[in-house]
């Protein structure tokens, strides 16, 4: 703090008001004043003079205001978290009573010496797109999932990896009430479409395991600060899928979440794969994931709408495309990758053996 342009009383008031923030004792303040003004003031004199000046009352009032604001912010956070938790639980209770399970289908697959890993991400149900590069709505969403399913061969085990952004998400805060209705409808519809997708796979595989992580578009509330991990519509969509497929004996939803943003898949051969959406991770630098105790042989992610395969050291990185395709924002940024999804095989020798990029148009 520059005291050179202040009088001794102004300097004392400033130092006294900032005493707690700067972790100063009265002796520290006296030393600073003596060094600047050569006044020979003592620590006790500083304390009494500051108290008489009235500045101490201002400082105390400021501290009280700051404390009150912190308490208000804390209470607001608690209310929003309670509200989101309540809404999610209420929706789960309603859905348990209203979602009708699909009729089970028979397995007609074939034995194979590899697992099929089906990656589905960035569906953004609820988006309406009509530009020079892409036309997309709910009907087209279902058509693209059907095209993707048709490309997948039969086998013994299929690992379905749902990597987030299943819904488009909520509009701005000013439309919160309307957005709650919209995002719930988005969630129900995408869950039904994905459950039908998995049901189709159940006819071609002896075992189908469904894994899922949450993306960055499916918050229950539009503001990031109001969201809690796991309390989002991606997680709810996966729950609705499990209700639809409750009577399908060869479809399982294993408890695989490390946290809501990371899931772990261990294939038939013991290979460890970590599944993430990708908004928290850079495919070129996975040190925070690879350095975990899980020691993955592969990391599978979405988010960037750009399919590809790369290596980080000995770890294979499978990057998925999107079901949605480019919207106006992506076109404006010149990201016009066509809608594309990925499935890949795992064998005894490799977590990622052959990768297939499937165009959805």
Task: Give structural notes.
It is a single chain. The chain has 361 residues and is an alpha/beta fold. It has helices spanning 8-17, 19-22, 26-37, 43-53, 55-98, 138-150, 176-202, 233-244, 287-290, 328-332, and strands at residues 115-120, 129-131, 134-136, 155-162, 205-212, 251-252, 257-259, 262-266, 272-276, 298-301, 308-312, 315-319, 340-346, 355-359. Helix 1 packs across helix 4 and helix 3 (26-37) packs across helix 4. It is elongated and about 95 Å long.
Summarize the structure.
The protein contains 10 helices and 14 strands. The protein has helices spanning 8-17, 19-22, 26-37, 43-53, 55-98, 138-150, 176-202, 233-244, 287-290, 328-332, and strands at residues 115-120, 129-131, 134-136, 155-162, 205-212, 251-252, 257-259, 262-266, 272-276, 298-301, 308-312, 315-319, 340-346, 355-359. A hairpin with a 2-residue loop joins β2 (129-131) and β3.
Helix/strand layout:
Layout: H1 8-17, H2 19-22, H3 26-37, H4 43-53, H5 55-98, E1 115-120, E2 129-131, E3 134-136, H6 138-150, E4 155-162, H7 176-202, E5 205-212, H8 233-244, E6 251-252, E7 257-259, E8 262-266, E9 272-276, H9 287-290, E10 298-301, E11 308-312, E12 315-319, H10 328-332, E13 340-346, E14 355-359
Parallel strand pairs: 1-4, 4-5, 5-6, 9-10, 10-12
Antiparallel strand pairs: 1-13, 2-3, 7-8, 8-9, 11-12, 13-14
Helix pairs in contact: 1-3, 1-4, 1-5, 3-4, 5-8, 6-7, 7-8
